[in-house]
TrEMBL record:
Gene3D superfamilies: DNA primase, catalytic core, N-terminal domain, Zinc finger, CHC2-type domain. One of its GO terms (cellular component) is cytoplasm. Residues 32-87 form the Zinc finger CHC2-type domain. The keyword Zinc-finger applies. SMART domains: ZnF_CHCC (SM00400). The keyword Zinc applies. This is CHC2-type zinc finger protein. GO terms for molecular function: DNA binding; DNA-directed RNA polymerase activity; zinc ion binding. GO terms for biological process: DNA replication, synthesis of primer.
Length: 226
């Protein structure tokens, strides 16, 4: 029998949202499907494959939701029934959803959100940012661990877009004998470059490990994206 941990490893939140026809906005927020929500109050966290509703009117308020929880509340079923539903989604007995197509804006927002979340999980990044007198509360700062394309949850469509944009370069083979990749700007802090509309138009990378030869990394404007 498939364990809960295995389900969470194999089923992504993106797959669950797509199955229910839900698409977050550019800030990764949704009108919460669990209550009457006039303004988007459900925040999606793709890195941890969880979400959280900030509305006190929501029955899920105060509880981070994983993929099983989301299905349980969406279907109005028991946790056991939600587990069976998730297993069906993984096994393909439920109609598959189309592969996600990333456009330029979605890719930039997705990747920078990922990089920002990585700061909270990296002590070296936090120490570097503090040593430079930067304030994460005032500035938007991300950190590239170079790990976003790894693991069982990796999104092949996103990888393809990142290769086209130059964030990843094909490089040898991975531990499973498949295609390996070398990330651009690994161990760099990342700043978003915004246009006059406030939209992310590119990213600026600065190395945290070699100030002598990698002090400045080029601004990345993603010319290959539509």
């Amino acid at each position: 029998m498939m364990e809960i941990a295995a389900i969470k490893q194999q089923l992504t939140l993106s797959q669950v949202l797509s199955y229910y026809g839900l698409k977050p906005d550019k800030h990764l927020r949704l009108h919460c499907p669990f209550h009457d929500d006039k303004t988007p109050s459900l925040q999606v966290y793709y890195k941890t494959h969880s979400c959280y509703c900030f509305s006190s009117n929501c029955k899920t308020h105060g509880k981070p939701l994983d993929v099983i929880d989301f299905v349980m509340y969406k279907e109005g079923c028991s946790k056991h029934e939600a587990i069976l539903k998730c297993k069906a989604l993984i096994g393909g007995s439920v109609p598959a959803t189309p592969a996600r197509n990333y456009n330029r804006e979605e890719t930039l927002n997705y990747m920078f959100t990922y990089f920002k979340n990585a700061v909270h999980n990296s002590k070296p990044a936090q120490e570097y940012i503090q040593s430079r007198g930067l304030e994460t509360a005032r500035l938007e700062i991300g950190y590239n661990t170079g790990q976003f394309h790894h693991g069982r949850r990796r999104d092949d469509q996103l990888i393809a877009v990142c290769v086209e944009a130059g964030l990843l370069s094909p490089w040898g083979t991975n531990s499973n004998g498949g295609q390996g990749y070398r990330p651009f700007g690994k161990y760099c802090i990342v700043f978003a470059l915004r246009n006059s509309k406030g939209e992310i138009s590119g990213m600026y990378f600065r190395s945290t490990v070699n100030d002598d030869t990698q002090r400045l990394r080029e601004a990345f404007s993603f010319p290959g994206l539509p």
